[in-house]
Write a structure and sequence with these properties.
Strand order of the largest sheet: 4-3-2-1-7
Order of helices and strands: EEEEHEEE
Largest sheet: 5 strands, antiparallel
Distance between the termini: 41 Å
Structural class: mainly beta
CATH superfamily: DUF1653-like domain
Number of helices: 1
Strand content: 35-45%
Oligomer: single chain
CATH architecture: Roll
CATH class: Mainly Beta
Shape: globular
Helix content: under 10%
Number of strands: 7
């Protein structure tokens, strides 16, 4: 398989994002699932153990109904990252 054969990526631009529950994350890159080729967002928690996470890119970008209002699951954060 060549790059030309791969489905298009849903790219999440690297940077800081705030989850709708309030915690901050750093998006590192957009990657692919090795078996399904599904676009995945690779990101790091900016709290606690600062673990790495991966989530389907479509889910990372989706809107959720929260208290009767549609809001993004993650939204771009223009503030500064907390100190490590």
């Amino acid at each position: 398989m060549t790059d030309d054969d791969l489905p298009a990526l849903i790219r999440t631009p690297p940077g800081l994002y705030r989850h709708y529950k309030g915690m901050l994350y750093e998006v590192i890159d957009t990657v692919r699932h090795s078996e399904t080729l599904e676009p995945m967002t690779l990101y790091r928690a900016l709290y606690g153990q600062r673990g790495l996470w991966v989530r389907p890119a479509a889910m990372f970008e989706e809107q959720l109904l929260i208290d009767g209002v549609m809001r993004p699951r993650f939204e771009k954060w223009e503030g500064q990252a907390p100190d490590a």
